[in-house]
Amino acid sequence: MSKNKKKITKSMILRSVASSTAIETGETVKTIEKKLKANKLKYESLSLAI
After folding, report:
1. Which of 48, 19, 47, 43 is nearest to 32 (CA)?
2. Residue-level pLDDT at 22
3. Rounded distance, CA 46 to CA 44, Å?
4. With 0-12 CB in 10 A as exposed, 13-18 as middle and 19+ as buried, what is 13?
5. Farthest CA pair distance, the chain
6. Are 28 and 46 in contact (CB under 8 A)?
7. Among 13, 32, 34, 45, which is most exposed with the fewest C-beta within 10 angstroms?
8. Cβ atoms of 28 and 22 closer than 8 Å
9. pTM for the whole thing?
10. Could you tell me where the DSSP H helices lie in the chain?
11. Given this model, what pLDDT does residue 27 score?
């Protein structure tokens, strides 16, 4: 494993999910990111497995 391994952040995961969803739905990444961030409180009890 490389010593220069970059830490994966929640922001990076959100961008990845938004990008993938944008490709499938035709919406912009920015729009989907905004929706994901707006729904953050809805899923507050869940944590991302990193």
Report:
1. 19
2. 94
3. 5
4. middle
5. 38
6. no
7. 45
8. yes
9. 0.64
10. 10-25, 29-38
11. 94
**Six token digits for residue 10:** 């929640």
Tokens matching residue 30: 């920015």
Cα separation of 24 and 3, whole Å? 35
Dist CA 4 CA 49 (whole Å): 21
Q: Answer for the pair 18, 33: CB distance below 8 angstroms, yes or no.
A: yes
Phi and psi dihedrals of 24, rounded to 5? Answer: -75, -35
